[in-house]
Design brief:
Number of strands: 12
Order of helices and strands: HHHEEEEEEEEEEEEH
Helix content: 25-40%
CATH superfamily of the largest domain: Rod shape-determining protein MreC, domain 1
Strand content: 25-35%
Distance between the termini: 82 Å
CATH topology of the largest domain: Thrombin, subunit H
Number of domains: 2
Strand order of the largest sheet: 1-2-5-4-3-12
C-alpha cells in the first residue's frame, strides 16, 4: 500500500492526465457521430489488416506442414522405386534395401554452383538423424553430393560440382567400375575415370553408383555417357558423363541413411588393423 501511495505521489499528475485523456476519447467517440464513424472505420481497416496478416501466417504454416508431409511421402515413393529397379536389374540385395537404407527429406536453404568447389546447405541436421559422410540424392534419384559437416539443425554438403569429388561408379550392366570426378566448370557434365579399355561401352550407356562405399547403395542413377576417348599410353578410357540432375536448379534433397554403416566400418577397421 505504501508503494502505491508513493507511486501516485510521484506520478499522480501523469496518471491523472492519461485517465482524463481516455475519458475524453471515450466521450468524443460515443457522443459525436462523425468521430465515432471515423473511429469505427479506422478500427475496421486495422482489424482487417491484422486478420489478413494472421491468415497469411496461418496459410504459410499450413503450406509448410503440407510440404513436409509431401516430402516424406516422396521419400517413401523413391525408396519403393529404387527397390523396384533393384529387382528389375536382378540385384541380389533388392529385398534388403528397406532393411539397410532409408531417406531423410530436406530442403536446400543455400547453395553455390559457379565455384571450383561448390557446396550447399540443407535445412536439417543431426536432430533429424543426418551424419557426416552420408550420401545425398535428388527427387529424381540422381546423386548430388556428400554430407561433410553437421550441426543440430543444418547440414553442409559437398556438391558433385567440386574438385574434391570422387565417387565410385560403374556402367550399368557392365562389370568394371571407376571414379566419378569433376574436372571442368560445366555443371551438367563430369568425368568417369579408370574404366579399362577392354570394357565394351557405348554412348548413351547409363552410369550408376557401384555400391563400393557406405554412402551410396548400388545402382543409384548418375547420368549417361555422352562421349568417350581412349587415353594415349593408358589402358583406360576418359568418359564424359552428362548428369541426370541439373544441380543449378535443385530445391529439395534426400539424405541416404545407411543403418549398417557403423557395423561395416567397424569390421573393416578391425580387419585393417590386423
Amino acid at each position: 500500500m505504501y508503494n502505491v501511495v508513493q507511486l501516485f505521489a510521484k506520478y499522480g499528475a501523469h496518471i491523472m492526465f492519461v485517465v482524463l485523456e481516455i475519458i475524453c476519447f471515450y466521450l468524443i467517440i460515443n457522443y459525436n457521430l462523425v468521430q465515432k464513424e471515423i473511429f469505427l472505420n479506422s478500427s475496421n481497416v486495422y482489424a482487417a489488416k491484422i486478420a489478413q496478416q494472421q491468415s497469411k501466417i496461418s496459410q504459410f504454416s499450413n503450406l509448410r506442414n503440407q510440404n513436409d508431409s509431401l516430402m516424406h511421402e516422396n521419400a517413401t515413393l523413391i525408396e519403393n522405386l529404387i527397390t523396384i529397379e533393384y529387382s528389375s536389374d536382378n540385384i541380389p540385395e533388392a529385398d534388403s534395401f528397406y532393411n539397410q537404407y532409408s531417406l531423410i527429406p530436406a530442403s536446400i536453404c543455400n547453395s553455390t554452383i559457379h565455384l571450383r568447389n561448390n557446396h550447399f546447405t540443407l535445412c536439417k541436421g543431426s536432430r533429424e538423424g543426418i551424419k557426416k559422410d552420408m550420401g545425398v540424392i535428388s527427387s529424381h534419384q540422381g546423386i548430388i553430393g556428400i554430407v561433410r559437416n553437421v550441426s543440430e539443425n543444418f547440414s553442409h554438403v559437398m556438391s558433385l560440382l567440386n574438385s574434391q569429388t570422387k565417387i565410385s561408379c560403374s556402367i550399368k550392366s557392365r562389370k568394371g567400375h571407376g571414379s566419378l570426378v569433376w574436372k571442368t566448370m560445366d555443371p551438367l557434365r563430369m568425368t568417369l575415370e579408370s574404366i579399362p579399355k577392354h570394357e565394351k561401352i557405348a554412348v548413351g550407356d547409363t552410369v550408376v553408383t557401384s555400391g563400393y562405399s557406405t554412402m551410396f547403395p548400388r545402382g543409384i542413377l548418375v547420368g549417361k555417357i555422352e562421349k568417350y576417348v581412349s587415353i594415349p599410353g593408358s589402358n583406360n578410357y576418359d568418359i564424359t558423363v552428362k548428369l541426370f540432375n541439373d544441380l543449378t536448379n535443385i530445391k529439395y534433397a534426400y539424405v541416404i541413411q545407411n543403418r549398417l554403416d557403423t557395423e561395416q566400418a567397424k569390421l573393416e577397421k578391425e580387419v585393417s588393423d590386423e
